[in-house]
């Protein structure tokens, strides 16, 4: 099972088309945190984390 988050679905205003994939939710959140820095987000807040988790898809 692979988990993925489409960045553009978390923040449609960003127009970002990056899709982050990982095998576990923990790994996924780490990769999302790394990608968030590309958007100038250095801290993944609980609100952002909830948004990201709501956008996780299984592929
Ligand atoms: Zn992005």
Describe the protein.
The protein has 59 residues and is of the alpha+beta class. It has one domain (3-58). Helix content is 42%, strand content 19%. The protein is built from three helices and three strands; from the N terminus they run βαβααβ. Strands 2-1-3 form a three-stranded antiparallel sheet. The longest helix is centred in the middle third of the chain and has 12 residues, at 25-36. The protein is globular, with a radius of gyration of 10 Å. The N and C termini lie close together (7 Å). The mean pLDDT is 96. It binds zinc ion.
Net shape: globular
The small molecules bound here are: zinc ion
Rounded to an integer, what's the Rg over CA atoms?
10 Å
Chain-averaged pLDDT:
96
Unreliable parts: none
The proportion of residues in beta strands is: 15-25%
State the helical fraction. 40-55%
The number of E-state strands comes to 3
Largest sheet: 3 strands, antiparallel
Please outline what is shown here.
Helices cover 42% and strands 19% of the residues.
Highlighted features:
three-stranded antiparallel sheet, globular, single chain, 59 residues, 3 helices, binds zinc ion, 42% helix, alpha+beta
SSE map:
Elements: E1 3-6, H1 7-10, E2 19-22, H2 25-36, H3 46-54, E3 56-58
Antiparallel strand pairs: 1-2, 1-3
The structure holds zinc ion.
């Amino acid at each position: 099972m692979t988990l993925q988050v489409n960045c553009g679905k978390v923040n449609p205003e960003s127009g970002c088309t990056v899709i982050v994939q990982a095998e576990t939710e923990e790994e996924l959140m780490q990769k999302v945190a790394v990608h968030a820095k590309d958007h100038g987000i250095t801290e993944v807040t609980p609100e952002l984390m909830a948004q990201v988790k709501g956008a996780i898809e299984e592929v």
